[in-house]
Amino acid sequence: LQTKKQGEKLVVYLEGRLDVSVANEVEEELSKLIDGGENHLVLNMDKVEYMSSSGFRACIATLRKLNAQEGSLKLCCIRPSVRRIFDVIELTSLFEIYESEAEALNA
Fold it and tell me: What is the residue-wise DSSP string for 9-38?
């Protein structure tokens, strides 16, 4: 995973297909970042082409872990095709979603 530290927040750049073949690995990597002291994550999803239920599960697990530590998870730059899936399975209310990385960092 590519990352960039911005003040207290860590931007994580996800890309490709977040499906069953990579979702567990992504979830483990995000968990390691949190265990390493990162409590405020921004997931930049500009290059995510597809998300399966496994990808959503990884995001939800990350959100729960951060919430338990009074941290925060923000999502940004979600492509319209992936955003439709969020809307269909009614997860848009669960996550803080921003149009741009700058908006997510300033929120």
Answer: EEEEEEEEEESTTTHHHHHHHHHHHHHTT-
Amino acid at 49: E
Taking the C-alpha atoms of residue 55 and residue 70, their distance in angstroms, rounded to an integer, is 23
- The b-or-e profile of 21-49 (16+ CB within 10 A means b, else e) is ebbeebbeebeebbeeebbbbbbbbeebe
Rounded CA separation 51/19 (Å): 6
Strand pairing class (40-51; 9-18): parallel
Question: Of all helices (H) and strands (E), which one includes residue 58?
Answer: helix 53-68
Per-residue pLDDT of the chain (107 residues; tens, 9 = 90+): 999 999 999 999 999 999 999 999 999 999 999 999 999 999 999 999 999 999 999 999 999 999 999 999 999 999 999 999 988 888 888 999 999 999 999 99
| Closest listed residue to residue 82, CA positions, set 105, 53, 41, 49 | 49
